[in-house]
Amino acid sequence: MYILGLETSCDETSASIVENGTFVLSNIISSQIDKHAPYGGVIPELAAREHIKNIKWTTEAALSESGISADKIDAVAVTNTPGLVPALAVGVSFAKGMSLSLACPLLGINHFLGHIYGAFLENKITPKDTLCYPIVALVVSGGHTSIVEIGIDGVVKTLGSTLDDAAGEAFDKAAKLLGLPYPGGPIIDKLAKEGKDTGYNFPRPMLSKRYAENDKNRFNFSFSGLKTSLYYKIKKKSIPEGNELNNICTAYQQAIVDVLTEKTLDAAKKYAAKTVLLCGGVACNSFLRNEMKRKIGNNFNLLIAHPKYCTDNAAMIAGLAYHFLQANESTPSHVVDISARLRPITTAPFVPKK
Ligand code: KG4
Ligand code: ZN
Q: Virtual CA dihedral for 325, 119, 30, 145, nearest 10 degrees?
């Protein structure tokens, strides 16, 4: 079964063809980073205008690269929430047109669940492998920082989320303070490799309470104070350069990664997870990937999305849609909560096009 996926929730226009939920035949991504970089963040109206320019050619390129003709497409899947509303509207409108013209079903897919599904793409493990449950997933991107538990029934339950900035924002805003380009994550990741964690003493927000059984913030995050701490550390001096810049990146990144990994591990233990899953744009971070591997050791299976499926892409949307289509369901359009499901419970037959 071939699904055309479309993703326009933020600043990437992406179109992809995925076969049977796993095999990515094409995954075209047109990034708008250059357009938003001067502002240090994404401007929704500008994003929507760029999506309008790029959605047609990315879809044509995805079809042509996949080698699948449009009449063989069994369904169209599109991110319908959460995201920047003007940006989402472009993808949803285009997807409606595609599904009408191809006379095939249209599925609205939750972007957050799509990120989780990114870890299953081109992977031997699928959401149907009952042995991997329960899963504790850390979803870390520019818009989200949450720990969720996924049960064998596919129900996704939020254990904790950020109370203010997402981890990706903590990277992006730090980069701005340090005079580094947007997005901040990749450049801080790179500079941090050359530095040493010496004497900066960044706080580990909300980590000291991790053992408090009933603390309501046990699995919550807060990164805004960390960013403020960076601001005060560099306020009195000029912006660091050379080795000092590398060192401050190392120390700042270490603080974020400590909080992310410790809280995820704490949740995995508490909920007796079989698998820990790591996904979202910040999951590209090389130090986070290594630290998660190191700390988890042999205690849990580890499922990390390939870097190309961590940042926004349409393959994760088309891949997840396959499971919902098989069950004749679309994902709930509201935010992820206990009512949202990663994998459908029922499996009603769906007859693909010949
Ligand atoms: O998933 P994504 O493409 O978009 C959202 O859904 O938000 O994530 C983008 C975020 C940005 O904040 C970017 O700085 C961060 O992911 N990011 C990284 C790295 N690569 C991307 N953060 C840390 N280290 C990286 N290597
Ligand atoms: Zn995303």
A: 110
